[in-house]
Amino acid sequence: MIYGLYLSAQGLIANSYRQDVLANNLANSETVGFKRDLAFFRERPTAMQERRQPGDWSDPIQEQLGGGLLAQATMVDRSQGELENTGNPLDMAIEGEGYFAVMSGGQTRLTRDGRMMTDNTGRLILAASKNNPVLDVNGKPIFLQSGGSTLISQDGTITQDGKAVARIGVFKIADADKLQQLGGTLLGFPDSSPLQPANGLIRNEFVERANVDPTSELAGLMDTQRLLEANANMIRYQDTTLQRLVNDVGKIA
């Protein structure tokens, strides 16, 4: 076995995965409420270290090289994005921890996308996805009256014509590392992690921009492309060496 060939293949797979993550972050750098993904890796143990069978033998020199690079599951970067004023009375941004809760496909989902509007029934929904109603502190849809003045306080209380009509829920889960990107700006969470009230404050007439720095993501993408090329070249060089070994060195005179 050409050990270096497998190490280069592992590097190619891992960096291809990282390239996809960075490209997705870059594509969503202007998506309101988007939280970037973080790609993580770990050193893969060698075959002997994985088996751990008594009596196994391996070349001690090659054992020091390790088993290559192994990609792990992505995690969501929950850092605060920049707040942008929109002047829309139904737009909201969360300052601090927490997420808005919406109903999507019969399941409760979380989002930091605070672009909101009302449908023809007066129900408060996400402007970017009109089938997703926004939920109050009790997990129920919110209905507003048409016309009149609408004010939203920092604790999420919605006041229309001087009367409190609803309170928007701001939630979190105990283990935020279990949040998963579901597409768009929606985040899923396991059933074993129930929603809890969060302490974030609502800023009315603002939205939260994506926490993506396009310059950093582009620099990471270029670095990943160079690593991909380096691993591909190593595979090509080792394949050429193997070809010469079989066709030339191993030829019987």
Topology:
Elements (H helix, E strand, L loop, with lengths): L2 H25 L9 E2 L2 E3 L3 H5 L8 H4 L5 E3 L3 E2 L6 E3 L6 E4 L3 E6 L2 E5 L4 E3 L5 E3 L2 E5 L16 E3 L4 E4 L2 E5 L2 E3 L7 E2 L5 E2 L7 E2 L3 E4 L1 E3 L5 H36 L4
Antiparallel strand pairs: 1-4, 2-3, 5-20, 6-19, 7-8, 7-15, 9-10, 10-11, 12-13, 13-14, 15-18, 16-17
Helix pairs in contact: 1-4
Features:
253 residues; 28% helix; single chain; 4 helices; elongated
Description:
- With 253 residues, this protein is α+β, with helices and mostly antiparallel strands.
- It folds into two domains: 3-29 and 40-73 and 212-249, no CATH class; 83-208, no CATH class.
- Helices cover 28% and strands 26% of the residues.
- It contains four helices and 20 strands.
- Strands 8-7-15-18 form a four-stranded antiparallel beta sheet, with no helix packed on it.
- Strand 16 and strand 17 (187-188) form a beta hairpin.
- 28% of the residues are buried.
Distance between the termini: 25 Å
Task: List low-pLDDT spans.
Answer: none
Shape: elongated
Mean pLDDT: 86
Put simply, the count of helices is 4
Strand neighbour order, sheet with most strands: 8-7-15-18
Instruction: Report helical residue fraction.
Output: 25-40%
- Biggest sheet details: 4 strands, antiparallel
Characterize this entry briefly.
This protein is an alpha+beta fold and 253 residues long.
